[in-house]
């Protein structure tokens, strides 16, 4: 099995702090799949403070005989997105893709070529945007050996002939433990730990510090599986912000998630947030 992509390093800990929380939103997600294999995903949310509503529609169709995946998206900002990808056809573990976006109102268009290759001990990702003035080249590689993971990510601006990103990562992973450390542009240092304490309890720790400042961030979070249909989530950071979440599977294909964020420093002043999300799948 190939190592994860650079962007997925430390994902287990990030999910502890990100999944299951929808502060300040009313959210609805719907997923369905037709007998012919076309997948439809519809999502929408309303911001409780501004009242702004955002929605999106995604369709995905896979042609397994050719390793081809066609993806199209549209959102209420009137932006169209299309991706064509081919997986494992030219070479085992190789994925080639082209994605483009188009905004009819402004006429803005973007395009990007993407290449990904995964092998037993290496994962390489690269993309190049379509820009006649000089494309931006992003590339990353992750090497894995006996649980150790080492990654490097860079971005090169060909128009100005300079590096715009220079990131390193080092980690160690087992079945129930993940350690991740990273240095971004020599300025931001971060680390995370994920521990699966039992079949029901997952915990995570995150720490980050920016060079030249006293801005240190620390967070502790956990997820407890009450039973096969219900889960509790909690997290707290050094800014005294406490997040709580409860997820309940009401029936097959229907899941309700309730969450709240409490500002411990200004408890009496209010400003606390709640979130409600409903997921439908058929």
From TrEMBL:
Q: Name one GO cellular component term.
A: pore complex
Q: Which Pfam families match?
A: Porin_3
Instruction: Report the superkingdom from the record.
Output: Eukaryota
Q: Which stretches are transmembrane? A: none
Signal sequence residues: none
Cite the entry's keywords alphabetically: Ion transport, Membrane, Mitochondrion, Mitochondrion outer membrane, Porin, Transmembrane, Transmembrane beta strand, Transport
Q: Where in the cell is it found?
A: Mitochondrion outer membrane
What is an example of a GO molecular function annotated in this UniProt entry?
porin activity
Instruction: Indicate the family of this protein.
Output: Belongs to the eukaryotic mitochondrial porin family.
Q: What is this protein called?
A: Voltage-dependent anion-selective channel protein 3
Gene this protein is translated from: 106083068
């Amino acid at each position: 099995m190939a190592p994860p992509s650079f962007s997925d390093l430390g994902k287990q800990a990030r999910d502890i702090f990100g999944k299951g929380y929808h502060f300040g939103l009313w959210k609805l997600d719907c997923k369905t799949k037709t007998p012919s294999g076309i997948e439809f995903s519809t999502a929408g949310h309303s911001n409780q403070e501004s009242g702004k509503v955002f929605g999106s529609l995604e369709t995905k169709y896979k042609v397994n005989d050719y390793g081809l995946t066609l993806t199209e998206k549209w959102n209420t900002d009137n932006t169209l997105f299309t991706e064509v990808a081919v997986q494992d056809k030219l070479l085992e573990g190789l994925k080639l893709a082209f994605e483009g976006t188009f905004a009819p109102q402004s006429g803005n268009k973007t395009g990007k070529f993407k290449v990904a290759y995964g092998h037993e001990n290496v994962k390489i990702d690269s993309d190049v945007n379509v820009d006649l003035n000089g494309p931006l080249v992003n590339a990353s590689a992750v090497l894995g050996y006996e649980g150790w993971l080492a990654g490097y990510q860079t971005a090169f601006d060909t128009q100005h002939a300079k590096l715009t990103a220079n990131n390193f990562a080092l980690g160690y992973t087992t079945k129930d433990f993940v350690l991740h450390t990273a240095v971004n542009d020599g300025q931001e240092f971060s680390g995370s730990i994920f521990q699966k304490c039992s079949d029901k309890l997952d915990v995570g720790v995150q720490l980050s510090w920016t060079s030249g400042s006293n801005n240190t961030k620390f967070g502790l979070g956990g997820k407890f599986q009450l039973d096969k249909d219900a889960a509790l989530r909690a997290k707290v950071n050094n800014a005294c912000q406490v997040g709580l979440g409860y997820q309940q599977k009401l029936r097959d294909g229907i899941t309700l998630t309730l969450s709240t964020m409490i500002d411990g420093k200004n408890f009496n002043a209010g400003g606390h947030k709640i979130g409600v999300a409903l997921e439908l799948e058929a």
